[in-house]
Amino acid sequence: MQNSHITRRSVLQAGGAAGLAAALGLATSGPAAATDKATAAGTADIVDLGPAVVQFSLMSSLLVGETVYIGSRNLDPVRIIAFHVPTGKIVAETELATGYSIQALAADITGRYLYAGVLQNAGGTQANLYRWDLATPSTKATAIGRIGDRDVRDLSVAPDGHLYAVGGGSSTKPALWEYDPATGQVLSLGIPDTGATLARAVAATNRTVFFGAGSTLGGGGSAGRACLWAYDRATKTYTQVTPPEMLADPSIRELAVLGDKLLVSSAASTQQSKIALLDLGNPTSYTVATSIGKTAKNFTSIGDQVYFANETGLCAYSRATNSVSQLTLNGPSLGEIWGVDALNNTLLATSGYGFVAEINPRTSSMAVTDLGEAGASASAQTVMGIAVGAGFAYVGGNGVIARHSLSSGEVVNLQSQGEAKDAVIVDGVLYTGQYNSQGIWKYSPLSGQPIHQAADFPAAQNRPLDVCWDDVSSLMLVAAQSDTEGGGSFWTYDPATGAKQCFINPVDNRQLLRAVATREGVSYLGAGLPTLDGPGTTRRAAGLFVIDLETRQVVHRGDLSSVCTDFGALQVSRGIVYGVSDTTVFRIDPMTFAVSVVASGINGGWYSGPHITADEDGLLYTLQGPNLVRIDDRQAMQTLRKAN
To answer: Where in the sequence is the signal peptide annotated (predicted)?
Structure first.
C-alpha cells in the first residue's frame, strides 16, 4: 500500500512469476556487479504497535442439530467453534494441528461425526483431513489422513458413512478422494477431468459421487471450464453430466443432494451463474435457471424453496417456477456468506464479518449474534496489506480493515467485504483494491460514513493486487489479475469525479498483472505468466532489476536471495529504497545498489506476500510476526549517505 505524498514508487515481485522494480525519480550510477550480498549497516529503532488485525475470521459453516459448527480462516491455530443457536453461545471449540483455514465441513448422517478439511501453505505428508466426535466435544478433533491434493475444498459423507473429498493446489490435477471409516484408509478414485485446475464441490449418495470442478483459480489458456462428473461406486467409472448451459462458466461451485434431485450451481465470470436441478437416477434429465450474480453457494431448503448465498446476500430458488429471486433483508449487510442453513423455518446465515444471522424468510426480519460476543476466541489474522497516512495505519484482513490511530493507539475494525489487497491514501481518504471482484472501496474517517464501494469493474477482473497514486494525473492506478480468464487489467480511477477506465489484457491474454508504478504521468506495469513455462518468466529466485527510465535499459541486475526467498516489496523513503521479504527488512543504496539488512527475522504474518510502506515523515511500517511495527532507520540512512 502507498501514500499519495510518495510519488516515487518501488515494487518488487520475485520468485519466478514477475518482477517490477522502479525506484522512480532516483539517480542511477550505471551497471554494477551481478551479485549483491547483504551487509549490516546500522541499527533501526522498531516500535511494536500491537496485533495488526484481530477478528474471528471464518471460511465454512455447517448446522448439525441445533449447533452451527464454524471453521476459521487465516488464524493460528486453525480451529472449529460450535455456536449453539438456542442460547447464542459458543459451547465448544477444537484446534487442528495443520493448515491455515478450513473451507470444508461435513457431518455423517447420524450427526455424531464432523469432518473437516484444511487449506495449507505447502503439501507434504501431514494430515489435511480431520474428524471431531461431537458426542465428546471436549475431546480434540483427530487427524484421519490426507488427500494427495494440498488443499481440501469440499467434503461430502454418503449415507453409508464413506467420506469423499475434493480440492487442488498441487502440481497434479485435482482428484476424487475416498475415506473409509472401517479401514481408516484414504484412497484416490482417479482424476475425472485433466483440464480442471481446482475442484470445489462434491456430493455423495450410496450409489454415485458427483465431482464438480473447473478453473476458478489458474484460469485462461488451456485450463478447463465448468465440469460435472458422476462416479459410479459399483463400476468405478466416471460419466460426464455437466449441463450444457454451464459449460461456458469457469467452474461448478456447489453440489447438494435434495431428495431424489441433485442441486448444482456454477461460479460465473463474464455471465450470470446458473442453478440446475438434476434427477439423481438420470442426470441428463434436469431443469436449469439463470441465477443472480456471479456465485451461488451454500444450499438449504424450507419446503419447496431453496435458499443460497450470492456475493450480495441471499437468494431463493423456486422449484415450482424454476426461477431465482434476491431476498430483501431488514438488517445489516451479510458481507461474504460462508454458510446457509435452516432451523425451525428460520434461515441461519454465517457471515464473513464474524456473526450468525437468524432470518425469517417470510418477513425478512433479522437477528444477529456476534461470534466474538458469543465467546469465540479471536486472534490476529494473517494480513493482506497496509497503508499509512493522515495519522492512521490501515491493515487489511479478511472481511475487515483495522484502523490504527498512530497518536492514541486506538484500533477500530471497519467491516469490508472480501480482502483489501492493497490501498492508497489520498488527502486523508483511504481507497482500496478489494478482492474478490469488489473493485475500489473508499473510507473517509472525517465523513462519519462507513467504508463503501467507490467504483466497480468487470467481475472477471477479480484480484486487484497493486495500487498507486499518480500525482500528475490525479488518478488512482490499479493492476488487477483475472483468476478465471487469465491475463488481467489496468484500472484508472479519479476520486474527484468518479470517472474510471479499465484496460483489459494490456500485455496479453495470459500474463497476470501484478504490479504498477508511475512517474511523471507514465504508468509502468509488471506482469508474468502463471506458470514457469514460456516467455516472460525468467526468474526462479529473488532478484533485483534497476531500469533507467530515460533510456529504458536495465542498468543493474542483483541477487537478493540472501534476504528474499520468495515474493518481496519495495518502498522509497527518505531517498533510500527499502524492501521487505517474508523474513527480512532490507535497504538498497540508490547509488551503488548495495544491499544491507535493516531487520532480520521479521517473519511477518502475511497471507499472500509481504508489504512495506512509509508515512509522511519517512517512518516505515510492516509486520513483525502478527504485529504491526514502525521502523525508524534514520541513523542507518545517514550512515549510507556519508559513505556515498
So the answer is: 1-34
Count the domains in the chain.
2
Q: If you search the block for the grid coordinates 490525479, which residue do you land on?
A: 474
Rounded to 5, what percent of the chain is helix, strand, coil?
A: 5, 50, 50
In this structure, what CATH number is given to the domain that contains residue 214? 2.120.10.80
109, pLDDT greater than 80:
yes
Sign of CA dihedral 360, 437, 54, 136: positive
Instruction: Please state whether the peptide bond connecting residue 436 to the residue before it is cis, i.e. omega within 30 degrees of 0.
Output: yes
C-alpha to C-alpha distance for 13 and 304, rounded to whole angstroms: 51
- The average pLDDT across 528-557 equals 76
**CATH number for the domain that contains residue 535:** 2.130.10.10
Q: Are 46 and 597 in contact (CB under 8 A)?
A: no
DSSP strand pairing (392-396 vs 398-405) = antiparallel
Rounded Cα–Cα distance for residues 479 and 626 (Å): 27
**Which of the four pLDDT bands, split at 50, 70 and 90, describes residue 644?**
low
CA-to-CA separations, 277 to 54, 238, 244, 317, 410, in angstroms, rounded:
41, 20, 13, 10, 51
Q: Is the pLDDT of residue 6 over 50?
A: no
Contacts of 373 (CB under 8 A, 6+ apart): none
| Gap between the Cα atoms of 468 and 9, Å rounded | 8
Judge whether 231 and 176 are in contact, CB under 8 Å. yes
| Same domain assignment for residues 255 and 157 | yes
- Identify any residues that bridge with 488 across adjacent strands, giving them in sequence order: 481
Residue 534 near residue 41, CB atoms below 8 Å = no
- pTM of the predicted protein model: 0.91
Residue with the three cell numbers 529466485: 541
Question: Which helix (H) or strand (E) covers residue 298, if one does?
Answer: strand 297-302
Same domain, 428 and 543: yes
Query: How far lies 15's CA from each of 60, 281, 322, 480, in Å?
Result: 31, 49, 49, 19
* Pair 252, 214: CB distance under 8 Å: yes
pLDDT in tens, 78-89: 999 999 999 999
Residue recorded with cell 456465485? 295
